[in-house]
Amino acid sequence: MSESAKPHHPSPQGKGEKTHASDFSYVGIDAILEQMRRKAMKQGFELNIMVVGQSGLGKSTLMNTLFKSKVSRKSVQPNPEERIPKTIEIKSISHDIEEKGVRMKLTVIDTPGFGDHINNENCWQPIMKFINDQYETYLQEEININRKKRIPDSRVHCCIYFIPPTGHCLRPLDVEFMRRLSKVVNIVPVIAKADTLTLEERDFFKQTIREELRANGIDVYPQKEFDEDADDRMINDKIREMIPFAVVGSDQEYQVNGKRILGRKTKWGTIEVENIGHCEFAYLRDLLIRTHMQNIKDITGSIHYETYRVRRLNESNAHFKSQPSDQPAVQPKANGQPEVKPSAPQANGVAAKHEVMSHEM
Question: What pTM, to 2 d.p., does this model score?
Answer without folding.
Answer: 0.80
